[in-house]
Structures are given as structure tokens and as C-alpha cells.
Amino acid sequence: MHDVYEIHEEPATAQEQNFSSYLDGLNEGQLEAVETLDGPVLVLAGAGTGKTRVLTTRLAHLLNTAKAYPSQILAVTFTNKAASEMKERISHMMGGAPVEGWWLGTFHSLAARMLRRHADLVGLSSNFTILDPDDQVRLLKQLMEASGVDTKKWAPKAMISFIDRWKDRGLIPSQIDPHEVSELAEGKLPDLYKRYQERLRAVNACDFGDLLLHMITILKNPAHQNVLEEYHRRFRYILVDEYQDTNVAQYLWLRLLAQGTGNICCVGDDDQSIYGWRGAEVGNILKFGEDFEGAKIVRLEQNYRSTNNILKAADSVIKNNTTRLGKTLWSEQGDGEQIRVCGLWDGEAEARWVGEEIEDLQRGGASLNQIAVLVRTGFQTREFEERFLKLGLSYKVIGGPRFYERLEIRDALAYMRVIVQKNDDLALERIINTPKRGIGNTTVQTLYAHARAKNISLSEAVIDLTQTEELRAKMRGTLMKLMDDFERWRSMLETMNHAELAAQVLEDSGYMQMWKEDKTPEAPGRIENLKELISGMQDYDSLPEFLEHVALVLENQDSSEGEFVTLMTLHGAKGLEFDYVFLPGWEEGLFPSQKSMDENGTKGLEEERRLAYVGITRARKKAFISYASSRRIYGNWVNAIPSRFVDELPPETIETVSQSGMVQTGRSRHWDSSGFQAKSKPAAASSWDKKVQSSDGTVFARGDRVFHNKFGYGKILNIDGHKLDIAFEKSGKKRVMDSFVEKA
Ligand code: ATP
Ligand code: MG
């Protein structure tokens, strides 16, 4: 018996030791935030000051002081990944105690769990399905058709995003002001919203927005007072991370739940609010004091993550924003290294430079796991992926598929595959009805059946069947046109540069148009990716060579075992930290993004600047910032100027390096004296002569002398829409797209 006791006691002792140590090392402000368990608390502080750590420690403290059982704490994190990390950390602090069954997760996951318990109160049963965005659109489209709304003019995808935004704002159909949207969907949008909700209920389903919206509806309803009271009894303590990015619905939900005990602790940083475009309201954090009476506001100033150079640089950028509270950050880690700033010729040179710097870090003993490349926009990962593969550097794209695995890229590649290899059945099947041509599943089945019976390929089967009466005349016409298109593209490949051809195929097939008409938030990113694909193709001599490269890249995908460099967007990097952080593409228009500035003016610019602040403050030891002077966008070389954020960096915190490796400190830019700007003249320097100025908006006329990347100089013989027949001095007569040439 005695032995048994001993065995039981040992882990308990270890646990106690952990309990006593988790508060060690916290500073005064942190300790105050951790120990003020009752009443509302807001920790409003800059990056790396330990806000997340406060939240985690507070959770451990609640348990340790027996203030609450795990099931009595509601803890909200911004991502599922953050939730699992928090679970792990607490479990560690608690000496390995299991953390199952806790109410710890994202707003969506927590609200879904709640709603399953009370689904009947909003007319659902507890096994309701959660619709994905595709289903949402399909459902709304049916309703629009039934109401006689023209779905060509009013894209259902665009309409659903209005409904999503209403839900983010916590608005149910009866609360919609019809005047707000009277010009949309023939004024029927509010009514469609109502029908959409009715329809969802009828099929026992919810969309993502409903998870919170239904819960708010239930908790607000005096008839269900008992439910609210039950949660007030249950959740004695509420904890919320990244509070600056909550939207109105999330805020309402929290406020209802917190009304009971008033024990709510939120942490956040107004300077890191970066989801305004998705409905986040930075105002929520600024008015916490008014919303929760008697709130204690804790400000933290010591940063434990970064060096002072990094903090100074971040501060100097963010202080250009006018709408902020303002705060001081300092660190005990010394000044540390300067931020390395480098301007490069183009995106490829930038990726090469980043690759070299990473190899240097590696040689110096740094782990790849402590290195991240943070981009503004998804398409930017391609250039780095290519480079890392070449160098054999393991990497992972976090928060999204690798470039060549993205849906739109796979679709575009499928077109290219069918052009190169007529009998690539899988590729043809993938795009036969993308964009929609009315070729349904049944037709594809018929085609396959025929192919199998005759032992021929799918495209041969298509050609066979279009010569018989097997299919309806209209369908035969559609299929024949598609086959003709492919034949035409194949023959064009003989005279045309393959990247130009690809651009034309995406236009002619309607594939690009499909995404242009798509109003989902992802669509612009997909278009950028497609353009980037075209740009990347120019690095290869032929289409088959390019396709082979892609096949090899895709095959390489599982090699990132062990250590790897993290590639992700700035948005995805919120809350994370790395020793070394690369911030490429700091160019006007790319970052800050032109789109944000066009759509939201100063507000948009300030949100971009907060993203820059988030980016810099992810770095523990050193940040690397780079920009290219020209980028190839859809085959055009576009000149770029460094981001205004580069100018906002204080000179004493940066070292400017030139491509040749010469280091200068301060702000002088290496190329100012290097004659670099002259290279935009096509023939100026032989190694750069493939670069020409953008031809955007150029008017061409017959007889104009022009320059083409691949074919050199030539004279325009004829103009056919956007296609130019050109007599090239060296390569003879060719037909090319106007966007690929510039006036010489
Ligand atoms: P962000 O605004 O980026 O989300 P944060 O304020 O949430 O940052 P944390 O991630 O909690 O900051 O902490 C930053 C780093 O500092 C972490 O590595 C954390 O472990 C460390 N840290 C926080 N507080 C202390 C402390 N008192 N002593 C030592 N290290 C600390
Ligand atoms: Mg944090």
C-alpha cells in the first residue's frame, strides 16, 4: 500500500512545483493582470509585451487558486492553432494535466458547440449541418432565381457577401435597413436574406455567420432567460486574445455572456488591428472601459520578444498613423542588430537574396524553424518557393496551399496540359466545365463510357461523339468549340511565346473572366496568382519544360520533415514570433496595397501600416526588409518605387546593403549611384536586356518599331485587336500579344 501512495504522490509533487513557478518572472503589470481575477480587465499593450502569456498564466492561476474548474472558463483565441498552443502551454504549466473538454477555441468553434445544445430554440435540430461558402452561394442563387432577380447582373457570390457582413454586424433580417441596399438585386436583398434564413432552417443548416448570430438571438431573447442564466452560472471567467480584431457579432456575444459575473479579461493591441476588411471593429477595444463598468486597464511596456532596434523601427513606422492610442515599448535585450534593408532589381533577385541570407543564417547555426518569410499577398510565395526548392531549403506555406497546389493554378495548368498532351484525360475532365459551359456530369459520364468502350482517350471520345447524334445538338456545339479552341491554341504554340499563349488561353477560355466576375474575397488573390503563374512561365523555354518543372515541384512536396522555413502572409503571422523575419516586397502598390488604399483611403493605408507593424514585431533578433525596382506582372515589367514604410524606418536602426554585398548604414540607397535606373532602357545592359518598361496604355500603330522580350526588335505589320503581327529583325514574322511588347 505504501508503495502505491508513493507512486501517486510523485506526480503531485511535480505538479506543485509547476504551480509555484508559473508566476515567476512576470513583471508588475503582468502580475496585476494575472492576479486581478474578478471584474473586467483589459490588457492594452504593444506587440511582444506578454499579452498572450498573461492570458495563459491567468488561466493556470484560476485553476490553481481553485477559482474555477476548467469547464467554468471560456477562453477565445484567434485561430485553432493558437487554441491548441494555449492548451499545450497550460497543460505544461499544470504538470501535464489533460486539457480536454475545456471551452477553449475560436469564436466559431465555441459558438458551434453552444448552438448544438440549443439548436431547437432557433428552429434547428442539434445535428444541423454547417454550410461551406459554395453551398451558401448555390442556395442564394436558387432563391434569387425564384424571386426573378437576374443572377447574371447580380452575382450571387457578391450578394452573399453582403449577407455575411450583416451577420458580422449581428443583424438579423428584420434589422436591415432596406434603403441601405435599395440599389442591389433590384431592391430585393433584404427579402432574400429573410428567405435565405428560412430556407437554411428548413434544411436544418447554418452558415458560419449563423453560429454566432443564432446564439446572440437566443441569449438576447427574454423567453430564453434560463439559457443566458445557465451560461452566466457556467462561465465564471471569460478570457479573450487579440480583442482588437473582434467584429460586432463577436462583441455582442461576449458582452451577453460576461453580463453575469463581469469577470472578463481581454487582451489586445489597437496597433495590430488588421481585419477591418472582414468586419473587425477596432472601436471594440477602445471603448472597453465604457462597456464594462469598473474595468481595470493594464498597460504593459516591456517587450520580451525583440531587440530595441526592432522596436524603434516598428514604433517609427506606426507613429505615422493618426488614429491610435500611442504607447512606449522598450526591451532589456539591447539594441541588437540593425534591420537589414535591401533594394533589388526584380522579384527573382529578391528571392535569390533572401535565399542567400537564409543560408548564411544557417551556416551561423540558426534553425530553419526560427526563420519566416512574411508576404503581403499570397502570390508572392511563388518566387520564394521556386528559389527554396532550387537551394534544397525545406519550407512550409502556412495558412494556404503551396503555390502550384492552389485551385486556380491547377485549373490553369490543366489547360496547358491538354494543349501539350491531347490525351491527358484527368486534365481535360478538370476543366471541361470550368468555367461553366453547361457540360454536366451526365455528359462527362457518357463521354467516359464511350472512351472506355472504344479504349480511346477522353478527348478522342469527345471528337467521336460530336460526330454522332448521341448528344444534343447544343452540347455537340459546345464540345466542338472547346476542341477547336484547343486545336487553335496548339497551333499557336508553334509561333507564339508559351507564356503569352497561356495568357491568351486564360482570356479566350473565359477562365480569367470567371474570377473577375467572382465577388468572393478570395477572387482578387486568385487573379493575382494566375498572373504570377504567367510571369513565372517566362523563366522556362517551352511549355513542356515548364510543366515538367511543376510536376517535379509538386512531387517534392513532402520533403519538409524536420526543420523548415515558414512562408506565410502577414495576416497569418499575428501573435507568432521568429528569430529572423524576412519582409519582402515593400513597394508602393504592393505594400501598402493599392487596392486597400483605393477602396478605403486613409483608413486603408493605416490598416496597411498596422500590418507593417505586425510584420516587424514578429522578429526576435533581426528583421530583413526588401523591395524590388521592377516586377513582372502578367508579362509586363512594371517599375516600382520603395514603399513609404521603408522611408519611415529610422536611419540609425537600419543597414542598407547593396546587391554586391556592400554594406552602408543609414538611408542612402545603393542604386542611386550605380546607374541602375538606366537599365529600364531595353538595350542598356546586356544582362538585363530582357526587361522593358510596362506597355500599359501604350497605343500601337502599324509601322511602329517595338521590342519584345524574346524576339527582340521588330516592326508592326498588322494589328488584330490585341494581337500584333510583327516582323522581327532576328526571328522573322510572328504574332504576339500587345501586352508583351513595348515601343522601342
Ligand atoms: P503579440 O502582440 O505579438 O501577440 P504578446 O503581447 O501576446 O505579443 P507574448 O507572445 O505573450 O506577447 O510574449 C512575447 C514573448 O515574450 C514570448 O516569447 C513570451 O514567452 C515572452 N515573455 C512574455 N512575458 C515575459 C516575462 N515576464 N519574462 C520573460 N519572457 C516573457
Ligand atoms: Mg499575443
Please describe what this structure looks like.
With 744 residues, this protein is of the alpha/beta class. It has 5 domains: 14-116 and 214-300, P-loop containing nucleotide triphosphate hydrolases (Rossmann fold); 146-202; 303-394 and 558-678, Rossmann fold, CATH 3.40.50.300; 404-535, PCRA, domain 4; 680-744, SH3 type barrels. It has 27 helices and 24 strands. The strands form 5 sheets. Strands 11, 12, 13, 14, 15, 16, 17, 18 and 19 form a 9-stranded mixed sheet that branches. The protein has a 6-stranded parallel sheet with strand order 3-2-6-7-1-8, sandwiched between helices. The protein has a 5-stranded antiparallel sheet with strand order 23-22-21-20-24. Strand 21 (712-720) and strand 22 form a beta hairpin. Helix 6 packs across helix 8 and helix 20 packs across helix 21. The model is unreliable at 1-18 and 660-696 (pLDDT under 50). The structure holds adenosine-5'-triphosphate and magnesium ion (MG).
